[in-house]
Amino acid sequence: MFRAMQVVLRGEGRRAAAAGLTGHCGYSTASSSQRLAGKVAVITGAASGIGKATAAEFVRNGAKVVLADVQDDLGRALAAELGADSASYTRCDVTDEAQVAAVVDLAVARHGKLDIMLNNAGIVGSLARPELGALDLADFDAVMAINTRGVMAGVKHATRVMAPRRAGSIICTASIAGVLGQLTPHPYSVSKFAVVGLVRAVAGELARSGVRVNAISPNYILTPLVKRILQEWYPEASGEEHRRIVESDINEMEGVVLEVEDIAKAALYLASDDSKYVNGHNLVVDGGFTVGKAPNMPAPAQ
């Protein structure tokens, strides 16, 4: 099992350790740090998963956040949960550049500036894994339109309003699928490699305007997107078995499990002045998953 992700299953001891861990719940806006006090952020793909957790983290730390998504009910509910003084929701399909420009302009009109842009909207596309010669380029184009072109639109329009102020932090959600190949279907993997490439391509130019751009590459987390992958690839497995795959089988770290809140804290670091000299960086949050690969060799003689 799990050949599709090329993960070697660990023993039951790893499973038991992970199964005993519990995640966070709720989105309290209480804060003791206020690391983003006075800052204004736009988050695309904000209504669920990493975007939702990051919105809550930003608000806890004093930011005003414009939530952008196409999941209207979830987005409005999150804005209400975070509070009208701190968060608002607007619909934004990142494949339409005009809508990306509009959400940036909305943040400036409402709050006077834009300090942080988190380009987080993304899809996985088809989960079929055909031979490369049978790749569906229509699916490839659809994934690239959101995951890469949509990110480029966010970088472009955030830069448009940040550069004149000589300050700003742009963050792009990438993935370990953009660090190692063959972890996901090709369209998603290529789109995330492209996000990392985009960050590195523009970081030098933006630095001369006082604007930073960085990426975050998470390991698998049990977000709605990953749940969909597991449900399709392993339909006979229960929800609890899917959780064990993510929290035990893929997990490189003993005693801890990667959660959306961990990625939110990584985004908080890149958004805050604590990372004032970090630019063009891909912050990989994977517990060491991508640092090496065992060679395809026969076992040595004992």
UniProtKB/TrEMBL annotation:
Signal sequence bounds: none
InterPro entries: NAD(P)-bd_dom_sf, SDR_fam
SUPFAM superfamilies: NAD(P)-binding Rossmann-fold domains
Highest rank taxon of the organism: Eukaryota
Classification via Gene3D superfamilies: NAD(P)-binding Rossmann-like Domain
Keyword presence, Oxidoreductase: yes
Pfam families assigned: adh_short_C2 (PF13561)
Keywords: Oxidoreductase
The family this protein is said to belong to: Belongs to the short-chain dehydrogenases/reductases (SDR) family.
PANTHER family from the UniProt entry: 3-OXOACYL-(ACYL-CARRIER-PROTEIN) REDUCTASE (AFU_ORTHOLOGUE AFUA_6G11210), GENOME ASSEMBLY, CHROMOSOME: II
Protein name in UniProt: Sex determination protein tasselseed-2
